[in-house]
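Hello Y.,

Per our agreement to keep a running log of every chain we model this quarter, I'm adding this entry. I've kept the format consistent with earlier entries: sequence first, then predicted structure.
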Amino acid sequence: MDFKKFIQGIFDSLKILKGEDPDVVFLKGGYVSLPFGIACSLKGYPYFIHESDIIPGLANRILAKKADKIFVSYPLKNFPTIKKEKLIYSGNPFRKNLFNSGNKNDSYNKFGFNKKLKTILVLGGSQGARKINEIFSEKLEAYLAKYQVIHISGDFDYDWLDYKSDKYSHRDRYKLFSFLTNDLKDAYAVSDIVISRAGNNVLTEISALSKPAIIIPLESSANDHQLANAKAYSREGAAYMMLQSHLTPEKLFSQVDKLLNDNDELAFLSNKVHSLYKEDAASVIAKEISFFMIKKLR
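Predicted structure for the entry above:
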């Protein structure tokens, strides 16, 4: 963090507070929130924070000391070191547009897929997921011999994956994208299993959409928060966790193949992962902030 910019951020935040004079401030965490939270503390403005991960980031660990309430995405038992009277289990707000995937058959047609074959969705992403892209692609020909694949690779790995996959006989079963926005809902709709990292946003999507998943946490993530997220899902039997340090192309293929040929296990995972989704996360946050403001005005 640039110390001069950080100090300037506090002064800029003080100007915003003076101009807006809010009744309460909501901070989502991250380095951008820290100078604003400090400014709130200096001027006596109440603030709430939201923590997406099981292990809070540095900004939220600092802000938690003066926060009036702390919204968390996981059950309270996962936060033994934080004062319980401050905690509110809200869940993580979810992009509702992903529910609007329309007819599943239309999504099959959009990707040109065979409805009789099962579909794997690989969420690589532009940062931190090259290892997933590399490990998955090593057995790509074997996957395509039996299944269909939607692979969101990120910008960094798209070109070499496109070149490598072009030689396979079942290339029509492989849909490679550097990024998906509007069509992500259709990719989720046709997928029978998801392979992804363990960031909280994607875990929320998987939970909301009841998708069986193999999650491979980024082991170099700050404070190992992805590993902690993945362990929480694994403990509940809601997803399969595979550690990158122990992962090989053969192990990943074997696990995916085993799951896709066990409909009972897929159904079990689907039900368990959905049980971790809090549908009313945004409403919980809005109501708590509204109640606080009402009490303040009395």
